[in-house]
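Aim 2 progress update. The chain analyzed this quarter is reproduced below.
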Amino acid sequence: MPPSDRIRDHAGQGATTVAAHRARRRLRADQARQLADLLRHQLLTDGFPDGTLPHESALATDYRASRNTVRQALDLLRAEGLVERLPGVGTVVVAQKYPHGLDRLMGLAETLLEHGRVTNEVRTMGPAPAPTPVAERLRIPPGTDVLYIERLRRLNALPLSLDLTYIPLDIGTVLLGADLENTDVFRLLETITGQRLGHAEITLEAVNADAHSAAVLEAPRGTAVLMLERLTHLADGRPVDLEFIRFRGDRITMSGLLHRSL
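Predicted structure tokens:
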């Protein structure tokens, strides 16, 4: 074989070796991510009641994974702030996420009742002209005054969400004297209107926190937050509450029960 062919052949073997190494690394990273997903579910559903995860070797056996894969999965959970490694103790749960259902129309205090006390810091409240997109959603003429409310909502004194709310002024005026610090707007709307709330249209997405939101929520600037846009209607179909809610993603999980229909 000519020397030039031997060089090309050797280079080809080297490229194959590098490609195989990269494939192994990708495979381990995929396995670590999959394992992290399984462990995260366990963490968030009290799968480790004493707050301590099993030893790495036990996790490797239970999940049929290598020790390196287990370590990489735990590193992912550590980066999320869910677990920490303590010398002489092992890997422990250091953060808790609270469940927020998406299949029932409830206020935050109603939703998290069993997890502690929700309080509201009213940062801004008063009449303001409705921007066109808000007016269209609330079915009022553009520029009509609405009640605008900005609240920082805390669970057990920890910042949880920043809520921006628009309510038609014929209803909102009564809210100006209400106890918004300790009462869900949903409950107040039903009291004021004498009607039950009927349904809500929701959109959920992840967005990067702007400087203001990050500062209020005491989260790192640019961190991802869960943005819930919700338009709530009374039982008679009238839209009465348009909200843009930014949740700290490290403190909340969204869940629901879905039924298949074709």
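The first strand starts at residue 83 and ends at 86. The mean pLDDT is 88. These observations will guide the mutagenesis experiments scheduled for the next reporting period.
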